[in-house]
Design the sequence.
């Protein structure tokens, strides 16, 4: 089949990887191939189905668990190895955030002592010895053994290299639009021009770029997230830490070689300015309160992005004749994309009955 994929962010690249095994793929993106304009580039890339279940549906938790099973096979296809970890995560709270911690635990959809357990200082010192020695003691601690994370920028880069080596057609710096189920290309001299019916299927993964072109009444919006990248040679953490915070969950995700991604704020706004002083202070003081070694860390990057979200913050797949649109991954793009890609490939390959189903995910228009 000849398939066009609109948007080479997270979903677009992963779909191209899977579908290029059996189909002829053409990828369009408005950026230069680095993905720097995508939400995927800013993300912390936490894979936390149980922790996220506190504020998400059962279906999201199940898709996240399914995705954690699917990630290793996807990564095996890449030309270069990327940092992927499944060593669990910790949720920590200081005494003053006890109520938030209790509320968080109550809302979790996983099973206690199976998907998560409450731990004490002795167990914390086995898992993260440096945290048990910090001047400020944590009062509430939880271990979620099956959660993971990956390095998003390594992934996006490795996907690009692998796709290029497979000779897929990748049109960079190409803004596209969908009108009457046909692709229009924004030619810098002639404006939008229809490219005609050259494809058997069109898959639209433009994230927030599809804002005005998804199913009527679906109302896509951007949810602002601000994130820091730190280099902290004095900090040794083995796994991501989620710190209870009255306004939004803060993750400290240790990547390779003492690099840390800290984020992210969650603000109902499509403001795409650089992070504010207030947010930077909140994120930095959260880090320092967790581990004093962050005091000497270098701030490598501070940036913001917009998460593509639908009204209920749940993802959706719409089928309209030969066009399939996937969107609304919100703060769960890395958590859910392998399961979303599995669904989309099954639709294309006509074997949807062979993959898990999730209520309300797919809508035929
Ligand atoms: C600060 C922050 C932290 C996050 N942390 C996490 C996390 O820890 N875990 C997690 O699971 N998720 C996280 N996410 C969410 C995740 O990044 C998104 O859900 C995911 O990137 C959505 O994937 P997508 O492919 O739909 O969209 P995107 O990744 O945004 O890709 C869309 C692509 O479409 C292209 N495009 C748009 N319009 C056009 C057009 N008209 N023509 C051509 N190309 C176009 C863009 O250039 C882009 O490359 C985070 C997001 C942010 C912003």
Sequence:
């Amino acid at each position: 089949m000849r398939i066009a994929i609109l948007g080479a962010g997270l979903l677009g690249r992963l779909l191209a990887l899977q579908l290029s095994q059996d189909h002829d793929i053409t990828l369009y993106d408005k950026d230069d191939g680095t993905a720097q304009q995508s939400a995927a580039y800013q993300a912390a890339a936490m894979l936390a189905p149980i922790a996220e279940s506190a504020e998400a549906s059962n279906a999201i938790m199940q898709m996240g668990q399914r995705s954690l099973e699917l990630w290793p096979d996807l990564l095996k296809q890449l030309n270069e190895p990327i940092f992927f970890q499944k060593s669990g995560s910790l949720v920590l709270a200081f005494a003053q955030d006890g109520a938030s911690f209790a509320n968080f635990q109550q809302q979790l959809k996983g099973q206690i002592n199976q998907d998560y357990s409450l731990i004490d200082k002795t167990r914390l010192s086995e898992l993260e010895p440096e945290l048990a020695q910090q001047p400020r003691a944590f009062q509430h601690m939880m271990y979620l053994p099956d959660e993971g994370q990956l390095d998003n920028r390594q992934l996006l880069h490795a996907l690009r290299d692998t796709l290029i080596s497979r000779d897929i057609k990748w049109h960079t710096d190409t803004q596209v639009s969908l009108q009457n189920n046909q692709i229009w290309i924004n030619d810098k001299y002639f404006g939008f021009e229809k490219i005609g019916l050259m494809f058997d299927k069109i898959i639209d993964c433009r994230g927030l770029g599809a804002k005005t072109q998804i199913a009527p009444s679906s109302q896509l919006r951007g949810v602002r997230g601000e994130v820091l990248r730190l280099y902290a040679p004095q900090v040794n953490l083995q796994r991501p830490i989620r710190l209870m915070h009255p306004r939004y969950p803060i993750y400290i995700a240790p990547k390779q070689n003492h690099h840390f991604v800290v984020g992210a704020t969650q603000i109902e706004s499509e403001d795409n300015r650089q992070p504010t002083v207030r947010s930077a202070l909140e994120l930095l003081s959260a880090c320092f309160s967790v581990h004093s070694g962050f005091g000497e860390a270098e701030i490598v990057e501070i940036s913001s992005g917009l998460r593509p979200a639908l009204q209920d913050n749940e993802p959706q797949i719409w089928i309209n004749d030969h066009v399939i649109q996937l969107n609304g991954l919100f703060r769960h793009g890395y958590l859910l994309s392998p399961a979303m890609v599995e669904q989309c490939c099954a639709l294309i390959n006509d074997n949807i009955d062979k993959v898990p189903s999730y209520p309300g995910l797919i809508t035929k228009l």
